[in-house]
Design goal:
CATH topology: Serine Threonine Protein Phosphatase 5, Tetratricopeptide repeat
Largest sheet: none
Helix content: 55-70%
Number of strands: 0
Strand content: under 5%
C-alpha cells in the first residue's frame, strides 16, 4: 500500500485559502470552511492535518516560523485547525499563545507586508482570540488598518472583520475573557456571564 506523504505548509495554505494568496482574496466562497464547523469538516481536517496540528501545538515546526508563507501556515494550524481537531476541548485553545506571538512578531517586523489581504486577515485573527485586553486593542487597530488600506472591492468584507474584532474586544473588555470558552476550559461562569451566554454574541469557540 502506498504511504501518503505528510502534508506540507503549501498543502495547509491551499486547503484553507485556495487561490487567495495569489489573487488577494479567494475567488470562491469559503465561509462554510472558515466558520461552519461541521463534524464532517472537523474529521476531514483531523484526518489530513491532525498530526501537523499536534506538532505545532507541542512546539514543533519551528522552521516554519522563518518565512512569511510558512509562518502563516503554522498560524493556521495553531489558531484555526486546532478548533476543528479539538472542538469542545481545552486543547482547542492550546495553540493560541504561540499563534499570537507569531502574529505580533510578524506585524512588528513587517513580515506581514508581504502577504495578500486574506493572508493578513488570518495572520491577525489570532489577536482577536486573545483573552488579553492589550492584544485585543492591537487586533482592532490591525483590522482597522486592513480596512483602511484594502482594495475597494474588499471594503465590505473587511468592514465585517473589523466589526467582529471590535465585538471580541468588547467582550474581553467587559469580562476579561470569553465566557463561551468556560465550559471547555472547566471554568465556572459568573452570573453576569451566564446572562451574557443566554443572549450575547458567540464566536465559535
Amino acid at each position: 500500500m502506498k504511504t501518503l506523504s505528510p502534508p506540507t505548509a503549501d498543502d495547509v495554505l491551499d486547503f484553507w485559502l485556495g487561490d487567495g494568496l495569489q489573487r488577494g482574496w479567494c475567488s470562491d466562497k469559503r465561509d462554510a470552511l472558515w466558520f461552519g464547523g461541521s463534524a464532517e469538516l472537523d474529521e476531514k481536517i483531523r484526518t489530513r492535518f491532525g498530526a501537523l496540528v499536534e506538532q505545532a501545538v507541542d512546539g514543533g515546526l519551528t522552521e516554519w516560523e522563518e518565512q512569511i508563507d510558512t509562518r502563516l501556515a503554522l498560524v493556521l494550524l495553531l489558531d484555526q485547525f486546532t478548533r476543528n481537531v479539538y472542538r469542545g476541548q481545552a486543547r482547542a485553545f492550546a495553540g493560541d499563545a504561540r499563534a499570537q506571538r507569531l502574529s505580533l512578531q510578524a506585524h512588528a517586523n513587517g513580515m506581514d507586508a508581504e502577504l495578500a489581504t486574506v493572508g493578513c486577515v488570518f495572520m491577525t485573527v489570532p489577536l482577536e482570540h486573545a483573552e488579553d485586553l492589550a492584544v485585543q486593542v492591537e487586533s482592532v487597530l490591525r483590522f482597522q488598518r486592513l480596512y483602511d488600506t484594502c482594495a475597494p472591492e474588499l471594503r465590505d468584507t473587511l468592514a465585517g472583520y473589523l466589526e467582529y474584532a471590535q465585538q471580541h474586544h468588547d467582550i474581553v473588555a467587559q469580562f476579561g475573557r470569553f465566557p463561551h470558552r468556560n465550559a471547555a476550559l472547566g471554568r465556572a461562569s459568573t452570573p453576569e456571564e451566564e446572562a451574557f451566554l443566554t443572549n450575547g454574541p458567540r464566536f465559535g469557540q
